[in-house]
Design goal:
By secondary structure, this protein is an alpha+beta fold. It has two domains: 42 residues; 116 residues, no CATH class. The chain has four helices and seven strands; from the N terminus they run ααβαββββββα. Strands 1-2-3-4-5-6-7 form a seven-stranded antiparallel sheet. A hairpin with a 6-residue loop joins strand 3 and strand 4.
């Protein structure tokens, strides 16, 4: 008959216990390596997602007048446009970003005041690409902004907000 484990022998219990401990240590270390080398990585949120989180956390729900947005192609009839809005900066140099979803997609509206004129930019959510821009004088009618001027101002406003989003 083959050798049977003699339970009366104390060494017979030590060997399986040692093997169990070694297997547990090996399993724990391989799980740690998998986490370290990409086994269960968390995805880093995009700039757009982090900006949306900032607006949702600190912004306020408000309505945006439709005239300036209509010039940029964002029409809601003649009704005000619902947005979630966040503003920062001083009265003379105030930056505002709004988030809207009236066309079944999220869009950003960046604007800032320079004197008595608002500089507004409509940007798509997916790539933060500027779609259209307008200027809106306090006592006047909104007009389209020339692309060369608009792109420079949009980049200035976008940089302002990218420096303030958490998780950079």
């Amino acid at each position: 008959m083959p050798h049977l484990l003699n339970r009366a022998d104390p060494r017979a219990l030590v060997v399986p216990a040692r093997r169990a401990i070694l297997l547990a240590l090996l399993a724990g270390s391989t799980a740690a390596c998998a986490d370290m080398f990409g086994g269960s990585r968390q995805r880093v949120a995009s700039r757009q997602e982090r900006l949306v989180r900032l607006i949702e956390a600190e912004g306020r729900a408000t309505m945006f007048a439709p005239e300036g947005l209509a010039i940029m192609g964002l029409a809601n009839g003649n009704r005000d446009v619902p947005v979630k809005q966040l503003g920062q900066g001083q009265a003379s140099d105030r930056y505002v970003v709004s988030l809207t979803g009236i066309r079944s997609v999220r869009e950003f509206i960046f604007h800032r005041r320079e004197g008595d004129t608002l500089h507004m930019h409509l940007a798509e959510y997916s790539a933060l690409k500027r779609i259209a821009s307008a200027t809106y004088p306090r006592n006047g009618r909104p007009t389209r902004m020339p692309d060369a001027v608009a792109e420079a101002d949009y980049q200035r406003q976008l940089d302002f907000w990218m420096q303030r989003i958490p998780g950079r």
